Amino acid sequence: MASRRLREAVPVLASGLKHSKSKKAGRKIRRLTRALGSVRELDVTLHLIDELAASDLSRPALQDVRLHVMEERDRLRETMLADLGEVNTDKLNRRLASVAEAIAADRSGGWRQVLASRLLKRARRLTEAIDTAGQLYVPEHLHQVRIAAKKLRYGLELAADAGVAGAAALVRTVKRTQTTLGRLHDLQVLQAHVAAVQAAPHARAASHEGLGAIAGRIEEQCRLLHGKFVASVPALHDVTAAVRSDIAGRLAARRRPLKMSLAARRRKTAGSAG
What is the pLDDT of residues 69-93, one digit of tens each? Predict the structure, then answer.
């Protein structure tokens, strides 16, 4: 999501700059991200149900799950629209423009040290999350790995934009694992909705067998994806090692400007929000 990338870029690039209004812009970006995230998650859930509908699973049971998800989505959509109504996009654009002007006028390059420090911290956090997850299938632990990997990737993308050699390759490695863990997370969200329908007091008795089959199919896919994640762990360790031994130092020493300006990131975010 472009708003998440902008949320990463603003505090890094505007670090230490006066009169940039970066903190106010950051608060509004966070509000925008939270408003969009919950509904997007349920959109993905509905897409997964469509995928399962093409299989041999019970159509009536899948329809029960679909109706449950759509009801939840409608409820969250009302909240999302209310939250978005509180975000003054014109004011956000003005604040981001102020940040961009302050960054353009800065010649210190202090943001590089800030980003280097952030990358080291996030590499350490990802290593800790991986070690905690181990090889057991524990959804909560895998969720923490997914979040840590995502945050490290956003920082590495900024380093790649700054022309740091090797950063782009590390981004690709992390994205591959993110794709695996993202799919796993999406299936786990669907799994929770199936369980909710199973537990509902008004659930039709005829659908229980079908719901059980759906839950079993999802669990099977989750286990396969977990195995794929475990196989990717050595590559993730290589990424965190490269951040510590190479990327952070290269970043602090470089003086090359970002390939994508903050203004370009702002336009990309505005387009995705629309």
Answer: 999 998 888 877 776 666 666 776 7
Q: Which long-range contacts (CB under 8 A, 24 or more apart) does 52-57 make?
A: 52/214, 52/217, 55/217, 57/210, 57/213, 57/214, 57/217
Q: Where are the alpha helices (DSSP H) in 162-207?
A: 167-199
pTM value is 0.77
For residue 32, how far is the Cα from the chain centroid?
14
d(CA 161, CA 259): 5
The DSSP secondary-structure symbol of 200 reads -
Q: What is the 3-state secondary structure (H, E, C) of 143-156?
A: HHHHHHHHHHHHHH
pLDDT at residue 273 greater than cutoff 50: no
Angle 187-188-194 from CA coordinates, rounded to 5°: 90
| Angle ∠(229,183,222) on CA atoms, nearest 5 | 65
Residue 222 carries which DSSP code? H
User: What does the pLDDT read at residue 274?
Assistant: 43
Say how far apart CA 141 and CA 179 lie, in whole Å: 17
Place of tokens 């509000």: 31
The strand ranges marked E within the chain are none
**Secondary structure letter of residue 134 according to DSSP:** T
Tell me which DSSP letter residue 245 carries: I
Percent of the chain with pLDDT over 70: 68
- Check residue 207 and report its DSSP letter: G
What six digits make up the tokens of 201?
Answer: 């007091």
